[in-house]
Amino acid sequence: MEVRLLAKRVREFWRRFSKSRIAVISLSYLFFLVLVAIFAPYITRYAPREPSRDVLVPPNFQSHLFGTDDLGRDILSGVLYGSRISLTVGLAAAAVAMVIGTVVGAFSGFHGGWLDELLMRITEIVMAIPTFFFALAVCVLVGPSITNIVLIIGLLSWPSIARLVRAEFMTLKGREFVIAARAVGVSTFSLAFTEILPNAIPVAVINTVLQVTRAVILEASLSFLGMGDPNLMSWGYMLQNAQFYLVRAWWMAVFPGISITSTALAFNVCGDALNEALNPRLREV
Amino acid sequence: MSSGAFSFSLYVAKRVFQAIPVILAVVIVNFLLITSAPGDPLLFYVGMEGMSTIDPARLEILRHEFGLDRPIWEQLLVYLVKIFQGDMGFSYSYGEPVASVFLNHLPATLMLMLGATILSSVIGVILGVMAARKPHSIADYFLSLVSIIGYSMPTFFLAQLLVLLFAINLRLFPVGGMTSGHAYGQSGVSLWIDTLWHLVLPMGSLAMWQLALIQRQTRSKMLEILREDFILTAWAKGLKEKIILYRHALRNALLPIVTIVSMNLGFSFAGALMTETVFAWPGTGRVLYAGLLRRDYPLVLGLLIFITILIVAFTLITDVLYGVLDPRVVYRKEAKEWK
Predict the structure, then answer these.
(1) What angle do CA B181, B183, B186 make, to 5 degrees?
(2) For A56, left (φ over 0), alpha (ψ -120 to 50), or beta?
(3) Which domain holds residue A275?
(4) Which of A85-99, A231-245, B239-253 is predicted most confidently?
(5) How far is B275 from chain A (nearest CA, A)?
(6) Which of A23, A151, B82, B201 is surrounded by the most beta carbons within 10 Å?
């Protein structure tokens, strides 16, 4: 029964989501990107950080499809390997934000009272911290590693998710099915986690997808300022490097830049389509 | 409505009190973070070579002079008191008070941000209304596509593209800086024109993200409002479309748009930093970046606090203005419950 209901929900969701053709294309692109990130070493024969004597070679079909940079490093392999950083940081930071945001929002909305007051004040404080500037300071002071970047973005991006989940819990806890469950004697704990939480998840997911984009762009911005992980090739770093060669080597900027933009674009389009497919407010209209 | 006025001032007072812990928290966390970081700040005062040649006793005197030998909570306390007095400390690398470094470079940043905000607000709202006029039309799809691309593109990449296209290939605008070399020492109109000429590309790249955001928000708010009854009434009265769109609908959509813009101020400040870096625009963002690289702790800390205060204050002002402009907002506690 449960499984059939779930399957039905998933089918219904896919029907709504796939109504937007551009969303399906974006989703396929993201799957493609994941494959690229995993199989990067098999696609290109160049190591991304390996210098060579072929310096500033323009894009060509014989040796370097996207050209090479000032140290003779292959741009295509940098773009391929760079997808690992962007995807890891984007997904991991958003996951951290989603877990914290959902837990805080659930407790706040379900418990109410003093706990709600306290958690919401904390949420407001975190919300007011300018994420980018704070992350920049942390990277310079504590050292720019990919773990630090994920943690700092994740730890500062949860407030909007918490607020949405809280609002969802507050409205849902007064609904008939919750009151009915309570009347039957379901414990408070399982009431919150098995009855209300599944209904609050869609809202959290929609916002989380948008947080992925933000994290991807934040990471690229930090790397662009030279505050990315120094041991890894990332798109932001490639653009920073390209800054000095704009006049002589446009390809150094254009290919990594298009990669960041298209990845962020795909996540944004998917986020929009998810919103249309899952948002109960839009559905009821 | 005297009770209304009373609850309004109560609301303002409450919001101001809420802002204080935010600023305090940022100050304390920043302070702890910066002081716990590896690297001796004195290293950046005397330099790498100075560190190996300086007399250790002299180093201790310097440490004592800067108060770096005192316990951390005492340093924090001193710092908080000083901030309260408006003293943000002294920048090692600039050799002047942080406040004056900040104030010297703020106008350039404000010029950039203000220009970008005006540009993006005007064009963004117009394009948003255009898209909402005929939803799901070809024009709407086109505008939505353009704005979602603009929304996804990092500011610094757009900046580089603009440089490639308009500065390097077409040679229409300068690659960077705020004034040309030959304009040095000039004043008056020609300096202004020269500055504006340098402003075009940075302003354009900074405006794009906000423009896209505003276009998207305007579109969705307008669509929401155009479904309401009073719009139907306006149509039934036989009013012209332009009047209904701009007078009736947009007026109601504008306030939420203002909130969105003010909520994203931190993000556009970050965008300004990226833009300033690409175009060598001499604003606060560039100073902050330079300070970070030189480990100029007081400068970094001071700038972060200044920026945070600016953002918090601005959010507060828009919040309060929101209430003044929108009579539907109620400042009582119950308002929260049904909101």
Answers:
(1) 145
(2) left
(3) 22-44+66-282
(4) A85-99
(5) 11
(6) B201
What are the backbone angles phi and psi of residue A59, rounded to the nearest 5°? Answer: -55, 135
CATH number at residue A107: 1.10.3720.10
pLDDT of B91 strictly over 70: yes
Give the pLDDT band (50/70/90) at residue A28: very high
CB contact under 8 A, B160 and A137: no
Task: Encode pLDDT of A38-95 as tens digits.
Answer: 999 999 888 888 888 988 889 999 888 999 999 999 999 999 999 999 999 999 999 9
B308 and A133 within 8 Å at the Cβ level: the answer is yes
- Smallest CA–CA distance, residue A245 to chain B, in Å, is 10
- The length of chain B, given as a count of residues: 339
In a domain, A197, yes or no: yes
Q: φ and ψ at B90, to 5 degrees?
A: -120, 130
Give chain A's mean pLDDT.
Answer: 88
Q: How would DSSP label each residue in A56-73?
A: TPPP-SSS-TT-B-TT--
Task: Transcribe A199-257 into DSSP letters.
Answer: HHHHHHHHHHHHHHHHHHHHHHHHHHTT-S-TTS--HHHHHHHHHTTTTT-THHHHHHH
Whose tokens are 């930093």? That residue is B273
Q: Do B34 and A131 touch (CB under 8 A)?
A: no
Closest Cβ–Cβ partner in B278, B288, B300 for A243: B278
A chain contacts of residue B163, beta-carbon cutoff 8 Å = 246
- Locate A187 and state its tokens: 């414990």
Instruction: Please spell the DSSP secondary structure of chain A, one letter per residue.
Output: -HHHHHHHHHHHHHHHHTTSHHHHHHHHHHHHHHHHHHHHHHH-SS-TT---S-TTPPP-SSS-TT-B-TT--BHHHHHHHHHHHHHHHHHHHHHHHHHHHHHHHHHHHHH-HHHHHHHHHHHHHHHHS-HHHHHHHHHHHH---HHHHHHHHHHHH-HHHHHHHHHHHHHHTTSHHHHHHHHHT--HHHIIIIIIHHHHHHHHHHHHHHHHHHHHHHHHHHHHTT-S-TTS--HHHHHHHHHTTTTT-THHHHHHHHHHHHHHHHHHHHHHHHHHHH-HHHHH-
**What is the model's pTM?**
0.86
- Asked whether residue A57 is assigned to any structural domain, the reply reads no
**With an 8 Å Cβ cutoff, are A246 and B288 in contact?**
no
Q: How far apart are CA B29 and CA A216, in angstroms?
A: 25
pLDDT at position A283 over 80: no
B223 reaches A (C-beta below 8 A): no
- Judge whether A209 and A271 are in contact, CB under 8 Å: yes
Question: pLDDT band at residue B259, thresholds of 50, 70 and 90?
Answer: confident
Name the β-bridge partners of B37.
Answer: none
Q: Do A133 and B270 touch (CB under 8 A)?
A: yes
Identity of the amino acid at B147: S
**Which chain B positions have a beta carbon within 8 Å of A138's beta carbon?**
33
Q: What is the ipTM, given to two decimal places?
A: 0.90
Q: How many CB pairs below 8 Å do chains A and B form together?
A: 129
Please check whether residue A9 lies inside any domain of the structure: no
Is A241 a domain residue?
A: yes
Query: In one letter, which amino acid is B227?
Result: R
Residues of chain A with C-beta less than 8 angstroms from the C-beta of B302: none
pLDDT above 70: residue B330 = no
